[in-house]
Write a structure and sequence with these properties.
The chain contains 4 helices and 5 strands. A hairpin with a 5-residue loop joins β2 and β3. By secondary structure, the chain is an alpha+beta fold. The protein folds into 2 domains: about 70 residues, no CATH class; about 100 residues, no CATH class. Helices cover about 45% and strands about 25% of the residues. Strands 1-2-3 form a 3-stranded antiparallel sheet, covered by helices on one side. It has a two-stranded antiparallel sheet with strand order 4-5.
Length: about 170
């Protein structure tokens, strides 16, 4: 259940602002019901409350992607004091992030699409595995204790289904 409403509020001595509030019913860990609130303070008078809330929450998605770039790829600190080395490092890091985003969308199951790069790296890439070459084929051998073997098998099947681009 989701509700959107708006109100005007003016603190003492200040002009009134438009507050758009969305509340959404959710379940907590103990299966009890609770309300989650999102509030936007704006001077936008043109858009309806629902459209404004959708626009504002869409911006949050972009801010979360920027935060993921900064923390999961390591953009918060440059590795050297040389401009061209840092530039190359940023380009390589951006390429790696884009490849993981593509891999996440095209090859992984739906529950993985909302995970950050750091979570995916921890669950899929930082595991005990080895690649075995046998009878002119490559095999990925995972530990029996790996909790994410189904994700790997799903991804490998999806990769096999992709069509290469013809020259």
């Amino acid at each position: 259940m989701e509700q959107v409403s708006e109100l005007r509020y003016a603190p003492m001595g200040h002009a009134a602002h438009r507050y758009v509030v969305k509340r959404q019913q959710a379940k907590d860990k103990k299966k009890g019901l609770l309300w989650r609130y999102h509030v936007v303070i704006t001077n936008d008078q043109r858009r309806s409350a629902k459209k404004l809330m959708k626009w504002a929450l869409g911006r949050c998605t972009m801010e979360n992607l920027i935060k993921e770039h900064k923390h999961d790829v390591g953009f918060e600190k440059m590795p050297t004091r040389r401009f061209h080395a840092n530039w190359a490092w940023l380009l390589i890091s951006q390429l790696a992030w884009n490849l993981m985003a593509w891999f996440k969308r095209r090859c992984l199951p739906d529950p993985c699409r909302s995970l950050t790069l750091g979570s995916l790296r921890q669950r899929l890439l930082n595991v005990t595995e080895k690649i075995v070459h046998q009878a002119r084929q490559l095999f990925l051998v995972l530990s029996d204790d790996n909790l994410f073997q189904d994700w790997w098998s799903f991804a490998l099947k999806r990769l096999a289904q992709l069509n290469p681009i013809s020259p």
